[in-house]
User: What shape does this take?
Amino acid sequence: MDRPIEPRESICPYCGVGCGLTYSPKSGKATGWKGPVNTRGEICPKGASAWEIVDHDERLSRPLIRENGELAPVSWEAALDRIVSSFSRIVEESGGDALGFFASSNCTNEENYVFQKLARAIGTNNVDNCARLCHSSTVAAMQDRLGAGAMTNTLDDLGEADTFLVTGANPAEQHPVAFRSYLLPAIRDGTTLIHVDPRANDTTEAADIHLPVRPGHDIPLLNAMAAVLLEEGLVDESFLDRRTEGVEAFEASIADVDVAERAALAGVDEDDLRAAAVAYGEADRAAAFTGMGMSQHRCGTDNVHALLNIALLTGNIGRRGTGVNPLRGQNNVQGASDVGTLPSVLPGYRDVGDRAARAALAEEWGIEPPADPGLTEVEMTHAFGDEIRAAIVLGENPAATEPDGNSVAERFEELEFLVVIDLFGTETTQYADVLLPGSAWAEKDGTVTNTDRQVLRMRRMTDPPGRARRDLDIVAGLGERLTGQPFDSDPAAVFEELTRVSPIYAGMSYDGIDDSEAQGASGSRTQSGDGGQRWPFPADADSGTGVLHRERFANGDRTAPLVPVDHVPPADDPDNDELVLTTGRIITHFNSGELTRRSETLTRMASEDALQIHPDDAAERGIHDSDSVRVASDQGAVTAPADVTPAVRRGTVFLTFHFADSPVNRVTADALDPTAKIPEYKHTPVTVDPQ
Assistant: This one.
């Protein structure tokens, strides 16, 4: 690497745990430091390989403009002029809502904040981030019921739980440092682990009870658990009286639940389900964890409502070692939403229809944001070539990550003008009219917000390669050119602006994030003593908040409703010869794989995908281990080698979404949850045949 490097303490660019990461001159690789979360400096294989993307030969290093069908190098001035002229013309002809803004869960709070500010200054709320595709249903349900769509507890306090209920998540592989450092020690000390997942995996190995739920049937399982809790008298009557409402109506909705029938519908053993409910209900403190296996369904919001019901029934909200705790996927998927890259809310989750919130932003920005909600990510893509004429994508790859990928490709072709800011060529950059080279994790300053609401500092260790620029400089520069308004590109100044417009960040300060004395003693101090501030952090407080909902819920109410939830069948049931495809991550790769597949280290560990299929399903189709198989749905088809294993339940097959040779989202469908607008990635009927 010919760029000077100054090793500094930063944060891993991958999952939402927020491990401290730096550069080791001795090894020439990334290494851990004793960070706010990885307090012993431990990191996972992805973190250990993170420097390989910083110093990669395929990094984009100069702006490109498409001419005669080919991307050709140009100056920054020419590239920006092209963007400004095209966007300005389209806005003049069709208004700001003709533009779509795709924010990034892999960019800093400051970059995302300025990005959504740019969208709203132009006159549209058409701004969204990939949380739409992974966690939006969790946010919708928890925001509605509790007033905050985030982990209720901290990783640190969750070790006090007597029982862990992990549903739709595989933290041993997907959040390995959190699992090994916080969950596994508690399990070894006697905490009971219940794992709800259609396949056995590394998390299951540590479980006392495994419930291999049929994909798309979480509500029958959770309603049956609620019925057992009521039957066995394992509800917290005092909590129900003080902190809930709608108890009688909820109990009436559960009264007719046949536990045996619901267990059969969910595809789990009744005795195991009852044992899980009793373990959860008898625990003094029970903590639930949830992930995309729950959220990525057309009933994802209702799935989370059903999970919240059993937490409220048992009083497992508002105390250490309890709660409902979504495990966030990308390093800043929480922060990207916090700062307003959502079409219906402003920074701090204030509704776009809130006149007072818009007025406060107008006073800060000099421009009032529009009052009508914009389109979600999938809705924007569906509108390409129609009401959406142009789009800008910041560090994401929607051409690979959105469902029904073949149709998505067709829609990208219909888009009049596309700008992409990224590190490498991707499936999305194939459609770019202007491609701008951005900055990797070690080339930027700023903040990210991890899965348990800690705001953490990123620190620049080197400059972007060639003529590449910091993402914040790019977005701020575009903002000034397109609006004529000032856009600050100093991370500290942008963060301080964010604290002025977002009540949940109001008491924070950029410098204070590193000041151990600023952490206070109310649950926000990390084990290492410094390195983060946790929201909500009110302006008049001396510290952030660890455990949410202690005396009041985050919305200010003393009570939260119990909500009856009925089973919602998957959008498309399999025919007799079809199996149900579900998807997920493995420890060695991440999301679409555009970063991790460029790591020689990770590629040596896992170079291709494999379709997990039960031995009985394989035998019926004449499939043997390692055979090449074709996986086909109404949307498209992919091929992959077969991994014949009893780890996956019969009737279900599993692929990751990491590999370009088997792009699984060509197969997945785009049925949407009506509330959160999240796609049903986790239930796709497919045929599986030997090649």
Summary: Residues 194 and 276 are 6 Å apart (CA to CA). Confidence is low (pLDDT under 50) at residues 516-529. DSSP finds 24 helices and 28 strands in the chain.
